[in-house]
Amino acid sequence: MAISYYLGVVLSKLALGYLSPPVAGMIILFALLRLKIVKEEWIKEPATLFLDNLMLFFIPVTAGVALIPFSNLGGDLFSIIFAATISTWIVLWVAGRVAQKIDRRV
Question: Which of 4, 13, 31, 32 could covalently link to 38 via disulfide, CB atoms 3.0 to 4.6 Å apart?
């Protein structure tokens, strides 16, 4: 639903840019699905299409990262490794907590 993305843009502006519009839009879409305002059937077909072709969305990003000269990363290498490590642990922790909550419900 495109409307959730545009609402995400507004929410991102209200958050002074600390929340990216696509993430805010996904949060809004999740809330609409949980509140049963949006029915799963309405978004199932487009979501399946995007998930089936997900790897195509990562090709431009990967190519862009591969073109960065390593000499530009020298001064920021520690920061990059630190941020990647911390964010990975946070994602693992959140995914684990969500999996535990879902497992308890089933």
Answer: 32
